[in-house]
Specification:
By secondary structure, this protein is α/β, with parallel strands linked by helices. The chain has two domains: 213 residues, no CATH class; 121 residues, Response regulator (Rossmann fold, 3-Layer(aba) Sandwich), CATH 3.40.50.2300. 41% of the residues lie in helices and 15% in strands. The protein has a five-stranded antiparallel β-sheet. The chain has a five-stranded parallel β-sheet with strand order 7-6-8-9-10, with helices on both faces. A hairpin with a 2-residue loop joins strand 3 and strand 4. Helix 2 runs antiparallel to helix 3. The relative contact order is 0.14. The N terminus is likely disordered.
């Protein structure tokens, strides 16, 4: 499928980046998570909830060069000429997905034996601390999550545990708040503190694999919902991740479609309730009180538009997100969906990424019951 930015989905919204990170870890996401705010954007490349690389658009090569300079005392081959060569080769290179120019540069250093696997892993970890510390300051923006099918294969230089990285960033942020009442995103003091935290114990690497070689069903398994809060939630057990279980009702007369949706949304934080009889659906929906309803349009005895209209008349479901699922793509069908106040429109056949993006759009608007 063609990837597209979440920017196209709607306006800027309030964001809680710490909640994003907690859910990326908990749900073992694989893919490219991207956050947009103002003129900057942040990119996290992940495999099974582990971090492969983190970067942003705020002078990424200056950041890389600064960290390589710090490594030059340990790695004699990282002389100034090599670092200049890196800039000439990669800084202005086309931004070909999924490899960002700074990640291409690090990959080249490993290929040319300027860095060992462990040194590259420690470099990526140190840079990630700096990137994620600024990522955590974002309060408004938009986001997107691209699956493995969207971003393609790329060489994995390391797989890092995000939890200790985020804990270091939180500690740095708390210190920043004590010394400065309103630190700006990407401010110099913040970057210097992050750089000072880079003298950390070596971390293990996982080499020899490609993220893109794993099926997406092993990666992204649930929606990511921005939460309100002060940004100091404990990454190891944030409130929304300790107890949140979202209920999704799937109403479709096709067992094949119901099974596919259950497989695509297979996650401990999602309770999928399959309903194959549209006549009995209203009572079953009232019983399970879902946070989101996926509703097939073409069913015997009672079509999806009629059922959606009935649900909207009930006080309990006036604001429940209802997504119409159909093979019809015409203007009239979409107009009908609007008339019965459906929340979205998902066209069959759909991929797991398409289903999950629809879930991402609507679960944030509600809290788990």
């Amino acid at each position: 499928m063609n990837s597209r930015s979440i920017v196209g989905y709607g306006a800027t919204q309030k964001l809680h980046p710490l909640s994003f990170l907690a859910q990326l870890i908990s749900r073992q996401v694989s893919g490219h998570f991207k956050l947009y705010s103002g003129t900057n954007s942040w990119s996290l490349f992940l495999s099974q909830g582990k971090l492969n690389f983190a970067t942003d658009t705020n002078a990424p090569f200056d950041r890389l060069d600064r960290h390589l300079q710090g490594l030059s005392n340990e790695v004699s081959s990282l002389v100034g000429a090599v670092r200049v060569q890196l800039r000439l080769m990669f800084e202005q290179s086309p931004k070909q997905a999924p490899l960002t120019p700074d990640y291409q540069a690090i990959s080249w250093l490993v290929e040319q034996s300027h860095l060992t696997a462990d040194q590259a892993s420690n470099l990526i970890r140190a840079m990630a601390i700096e990137v994620i510390e600024s990522f955590l300051t974002v309060q408004e923006g938009s986001y997107d999550l691209l699956g493995l099918d969207d971003i393609g294969e790329y060489p994995v230089l390391c797989q890092l545990d995000l939890r200790p990285i985020v804990e270091i960033c939180q500690r740095n942020r708390r210190q920043s708040l004590l010394t400065s009442p309103s630190p700006s995103v990407g401010s110099a003091p913040m970057m210097q503190r992050a750089a000072a935290s880079n003298t950390l114990a070596p971390v293990s690497t996982a080499r020899g694999g490609l993220v893109g070689s794993k099926p997406i069903s092993q990666g992204i398994t649930a929606g990511i919902a921005p939460q309100s809060g002060d940004g100091d939630t404990n990454i190891s057990a944030p409130p929304d991740m300790r107890r949140a279980v979202y209920t999704i009702a799937c109403i479709d007369d096709s067992p094949t479609v119901l099974n596919a949706i259950q497989e695509f949304l297979n996650d401990k934080s999602l309770n999928v309730v399959p309903i194959n009889d549209p006549v009995k659906a209203l009572m079953q929906v009232m019983r399970c009180r879902p946070d989101l309803i996926l509703l097939d349009v073409t069913m015997p005895n009672l079509d999806g538009y009629e059922l959606c209209s009935l649900l909207r008349r009930h006080p309990s479901f006036r604001n429940t997100p209802i997504v119409m699922v159909t093979g019809n793509t015409g203007f009239i069908d979409r107009a009908k969906a609007k008339l019965v106040r459906s929340s979205g429109y998902l066209t069959k056949p759909f991929s797991q990424s398409e289903l999950l993006k629809m879930v991402f759009m609507h679960l944030p608007a509600v809290g788990p019951r």
